[in-house]
Write a structure and sequence with these properties.
The chain is of the alpha/beta class and about 325 residues long. The chain has eleven helices and ten strands.
Length: about 325
Amino acid sequence: MPIISSPHEFNVEDLYIDLRRVNGTPLYLKCEGFNFAGSIKLKAAAEMVEAAELDGLIRPGSILVESSSGNLGIALAIIAADRGYRFVCVTDPRCNSTTQRLMRSLGAEVRVISTQDANLGYLHSRIQYVRELCASSDRYVWLNQYANPNNWRAHYENTAPAIANSFPDLEVLFVGAGTTGTLMGCARYFKERNKPVTIVAVDAVGSVTFGGIPERRVVPGLGTSTRPELVDESCVADVVHVSEPDTIRACHSLAARGFVLGGSTGTVVSGATRWLGEKYPGEDPVAVAISPDLGERYLTSIYDESWLREHFGQSDLFTDIHWSPHP
């Protein structure tokens, strides 16, 4: 019987969905949403805060600040609440209202930056705001998930070893690319051990992380409008780009079989399914994909008909998902 005293001490590490029965793909989906933050970001948040404490960066009166589209913000809000810190999350209009309310319920301050950057995103504007905030007072401590090595180290020390232990004969690993912390941590782990694992990054169409052409994106999670400093392409064997309609189709396809998962998961599953179909047609490789979060926070966006119509209009998207649109 687990007994914990801090929320970050609980995380289900060994739950996988076999997608063969769901969509016919030889793929195991590692579910990372079963913790008090509801996402894989709890690992990185805990690692970055603990390292900052050990380094003496967090002092009495310090205010933690971070730029986040949602999940890391929630994770940091939980840890800040547990440890008695103030926390300011700098986000943008793509962060849904449920996520914002959850952070505020945990005592965090949420600031929404609405200025788009040159790459049609908000990340540069968010980071600029964080820099200005830190320049205004030395009380602010920016953990900087986009460049902090403790982001990827959390997955090097936890996520990757857990996968290796469950699948000693692993052949392919699919990891979504946001800050690339999960991606770089897992890739470095297998590379340094000379494991013959093909690491495939899954990114969003419109993201600039791997040199893509910037486009408007409305689904938060994967993809960036400013290339993260953590990226090391030498650790990645291949990159798959997934369009947002394909992300949404994958999410609804999973939900139709009883698995309501997050937008990033839809992107990863869509990309992995396509890649495996092209590279291993008719074969049965040992392949794992990481599912970063669950789907409840997306009920007012990718699972909501009104939101889909607002952002995608009268597209053929509605013919591909499991509920029927209104006439």
